[in-house]
Amino acid sequence: MAQAQMKPRRSNREQLHRLVDLLPRKNLSTARRLLEELKSKDDPVLRAVLNAPFDDEELSEEGEAAIAEGLADYKAGRVVPHEEVRRRSTRRQ
User: Fold this and answer.
1) What is the pLDDT, as a whole number, of residue 69?
2) Distance (Å, rounded) from C-alpha 18 to C-alpha 23?
3) Within-domain flag for 68
4) What is the pLDDT of residues 26-68, one digit of tens each?
5) Is the Cβ–Cβ distance between 41 and 50 less than 8 Å?
6) What is the pTM of this model?
7) Is the pLDDT of residue 78 over 90?
8) In a domain, 4, yes or no
9) DSSP secondary structure string, 67-79?
């Protein structure tokens, strides 16, 4: 009697790659964000920030002015995306 040939099981990584390949284009950015979030959960600095106690100290006038300035820059488009900052800092090293 001939033995049935067994297909090797795909690894989780291979299955994930296949799922990503099958995703509609409109869902790719959402999938990327979700995967990046999962990856960042292993970051000890991020974990420390997320677990830090809530700061209920009132903002100073300077702090409020800095926030207003940052929001104005954002609304005016005077910002650099995180990916660009990372690219620039990587080039300098």
Assistant:
1) 97
2) 9
3) yes
4) 999 999 988 888 877 778 887 787 778 887 788 899 999 999 9
5) no
6) 0.37
7) yes
8) no
9) HHHHHHHHHTT--
